[in-house]
């Protein structure tokens, strides 16, 4: 067993916008705890958390990374996360693993929309929250304004547990001590009083004692009320640091160990007993002797040890000898080797207890969001619900080298395994492999990883739009297929009628032949020829739908009629009928919801209208944001991710859901028809 208990564990994630200094702060924390002799440097590629070769090249965090340290008798698991919006998926998906989410801000920049979104996601996930204002020793900072911005955005419960002093050269405690020391703004006494009053509001008895004793009330008596205030979002502690120069680092570690919640004190993790919509919810009980329940919140493919499944243990004890099932799998795997992680370092341990974060290796079946357990009673248990960002930006890809198709498929599977926000689609309608991510940078990094790690290169292009074709009126079609090449020939003649069907009906084939003018054995061949056109397109190369075809007349030859003849006759008779039935091309229309700062609403609404879209409504949100809703042709959204980023400075996001199909503009149809090059037909 480890030399700590569940009550000693602290699980904390560092969130924040790109450039806030999270990774540098993590280095300072590790150094202060004695884990590393000196802080690493992100710009030199020597940091513990940015160990991936791509991160060293780009000098930024691209993936989440775990470390653990022991400090003042507490075992602290820390997760560093990427800050750029394109990698938000790696940030949001680790929230079920922690009790506390710490938003790190650059004092020179203040709060940006990406940081606000992370904090809101943490609140929705029920995580306790904290704000660290970093780089306080930098020039041209206004720390009081940044604190006010945090208050204005997240509420008056954002209160300082320490304050900067000496122009950002140090910090002074405002919680455990009310001693009046000079600060760069505000005062220790004022900050102490504000925090104490905020906490005692959670407990009537404490409130009475505080009214009697005032600021002399021992903060140690406030532990339970403090953590209750954290759980309910009534208190969001704010601290000040300069991680690069070791300012406020010891103080931050002390707060992590002394007042931040352990797994039993944070808001309970909620699991569901099955996949059913009305499935009963429950929270694990942290019983170390109970059945194992663990949740895989991250999967990593290490070039040396293979696949790592990184999980939080909710109940039970995991040992090297544990036999664990994955979800509803019938065959368990033996843990064999159990690890704690510190960046790329894997430290083998004998066991893991409730609340701890551990990893297993070389279990191919393990996957993101898997539930690990040792009892079939838990086969159907479902993981916590996460509001993961939806990947919208897409590229169609194909292997650059012939013969690499299987290698590409295997590589895509590995990338998909590691990144919950990376999506692979096989678009049957356009015969394309499409990858989707959270933005252009996200996919660029994935393609770079594909090339450098797995040695697979691809050609990319925007995904084709899955247009469709249909008809708008009834018409007759006819074709006689006759071919004589010496000896037995080919003969088949078909008369058919096409009629439009209601949108979404599909295809209907009717055999109305009487008198055997086309023998029954050749009717399937006629239908096969028609279906070839349905699949390949009649006028622009897209699937034909919502058409009724009635075969009502024809001729055959007792010697020359063959299946191939009636396939060709049916195909060309159908093409003949479609050409007379006023065919049109349909384009997919999507419902779109764009969430942006309220000051950008006008630009967004105007942009949608300019894309042949229709605005259906706007909704003002409580956080200074607004959602613009409408419908727009999918073809108009090819570069929308970049446009939105340009308009909002990265503060906007959007989701789309397929709605229906509408006719394309005449000019677009003419261009699509002109671009269509059907295969040469046999005569």
UniProtKB/TrEMBL annotation:
A GO biological-process term: ribosome disassembly
GO molecular function: GTP binding; GTPase activity; guanosine tetraphosphate binding; translation elongation factor activity
Domain Tr-type G per the UniProt entry, residue ranges: 7-264
Keyword annotations from UniProtKB, A to Z: Elongation factor, GTP-binding, Nucleotide-binding, Protein biosynthesis
Role played: Catalyzes the GTP-dependent ribosomal translocation step during translation elongation. During this step, the ribosome changes from the pre-translocational (PRE) to the post-translocational (POST) state as the newly formed A-site-bound peptidyl-tRNA and P-site-bound deacylated tRNA move to the P and E sites, respectively. Catalyzes the coordinated movement of the two tRNA molecules, the mRNA and conformational changes in the ribosome.
UniProt name for this protein: Elongation factor G
Keyword Amino-acid biosynthesis attributed: no
Organism: Candidatus Kentrum sp. MB
UniProt-listed InterPro entries: EF-G-like_DII, EFG_II, EFG_III, EFG_III/V, EFG_IV, EFG_V, EFG_V-like, P-loop_NTPase
NCBIfam families linked to this entry: PRK12740.1-5 (NF009381), PRK13351.1-1 (NF009891), small_GTP (TIGR00231)
Transmembrane parts of this sequence: none
Pfam families found in the cross-reference section: EF-G_D2 (PF22042), EFG_C (PF00679), EFG_III (PF14492), EFG_IV (PF03764), GTP_EFTU (PF00009)
